[in-house]
Amino acid sequence: MVSNHHRHAQALVSATRARMTVMTDPSSSSDTIPIDGRLSTIYRLSRWVLALIFVYHGLVPKILFRNAQEIEMNTAFAPAVEETFALISSGVAELLLAVLLVWLYRWQILNYAIIAFGCLATLAIVISLPHLLANAFNPFSTNLALVALAGINCLSATAVREHDRP
């Protein structure tokens, strides 16, 4: 039985192949990137940007500066855990996720985890700490970007994988 995700990926690959045939012109300049190269670039770039976001968010607001908003979220969602331990643990977890995103780049389960956690964390904040949504850079906008990048990485990975098949 073929899943909807697999059918969607196949449709994306078919459309990409059709565009490649139309857009790849041998007389075009050498600085033009073919579609398959674009998908590979999108795949790598989205993965690296995800990793960099997690490095930043794990290191700067949690480990280096102990941001008040991070403390408030940790206290609200893990009240039994000591404040410093919660901050450092969550920071180290985000740094580990960044390393895994780069090292285990074929593991799409990491993208699905980012999507699920981003949605659940945002929902929890909307319910429990809605005043945080008024900040310029808030959990909603950050998680929305993370979920979108993880989705882009999933879709481009599927297309790149399908294109690279013999």
In short:
With 166 residues, the chain is an all-alpha fold.
Question: What would the keywords be for this entry?
Answer:
single chain, 77% helix, mainly alpha, 166 residues
Describe the 3D structure.
By secondary structure, the chain is mostly helical. It has one domain (8-16, 34-164). It contains 6 helices and no strands. It has helices at 4-23, 35-64, 68-77, 83-103, 109-128, 139-164. Helix 1 packs across helix 6 (139-164), helix 2 packs antiparallel against helix 6 and helix 5 (109-128) packs antiparallel against helix 6 (139-164). The longest helix has 30 residues, at 35-64. It is elongated and about 50 Å long. It starts with a helix and ends with a helix.
Set down the secondary structure blueprint.
Elements lengths: L3 H20 L11 H30 L3 H10 L5 H21 L5 H20 L10 H26 L2
Helix pairs in contact: 1-6, 2-4, 2-6, 5-6
Number of helices: 6
Main β-sheet description: none
Integer average pLDDT:
85
Helix residue percentage = over 70%
The radius of gyration is: 19 Å
Order of helices and strands: HHHHHH
Question: In terms of structural class, how would the helical and strand content be classed?
Answer: mainly alpha
Number of strands: 0
The domain tally reads 1
